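Exercise 3.2. Students should predict the tertiary structure of the chain below and write it as structure tokens, then compare their answer with the key that follows.

Predict this chain's 3D structure.
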Amino acid sequence: MARAGGIAALGEVMQLAFVPDDFDAAITHWTEVMGVGPFFMIENIHLDGMKYRGEPTDAVFTLALAYWGDIQIELIRPENDAPSIYSGEYAQGNRLHHVCILVDDIAKARAVCAEQGAEVMVEGKFGASEVIYVDPGAGPGSLVEILQQDPDGPDLFGMIKAAGIDWDGSDPVRKLG
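Answer key:
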């Protein structure tokens, strides 16, 4: 049970995210061995106003999203060596990199994280959606992504989840954006 006021009180985990050593091999594993897909790829993302540990960064990354039931699987490929959570001490290879929770109020989430001593590692915006990644203190591998989606934006996650229902294995990687 979550401790009152703890980070878990902000919401349920909706995503497991990985930064695999071999991005393409990871997609093949998830689609062919695990039967999860299709993956929707968004290439060369740079968050607006992106900061790593409070300093601006030019980090660029590609991600692929799919659903395994109600859990979103995210695979991430860094596209450059700019400071980020995808390189250095936070690079996790083929292990779990972070989990994600969705919130309605990112300011409240920041306050809860600050109360718990969680350091904001990355912050930025993707369109009208604001995101922070926090380290709650146990070191690499325990990052939590907290995302406040644009309530008036397209239901991207819903579309990706719907594509996975009764997916027949065809067209395993689809590009977005």
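Discussion points: The chain has a mean pLDDT of 92. The two ends are 39 Å apart (CA to CA).
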